[in-house]
Amino acid sequence: MIGIDEEIERELRCVEDLTEEISMLARKGQINTLKQLERDLHNSLKQLEKLHERKRLWATVEALNKDGILAKVVGRVVEMA
Known about the structure:
Blueprint: H1 4-28, H2 31-66
Helix pairs in contact: 1-2
């Protein structure tokens, strides 16, 4: 299983690769391809934000547990109507 830090690092590399590609395509004037990469970059940044939030939650749980307060992170439950 991949750890949260590894996931963050992987997503950061993806963002770096996308920004390099976007820069190169912008110089070439390939606007249609740029639009797709812009969406990809936006999605990667949103994923990176979620990963950092998840890491922060795990750190909070760890700190609470060290202070003797029993806590855990639970998955979100989505119910379909």
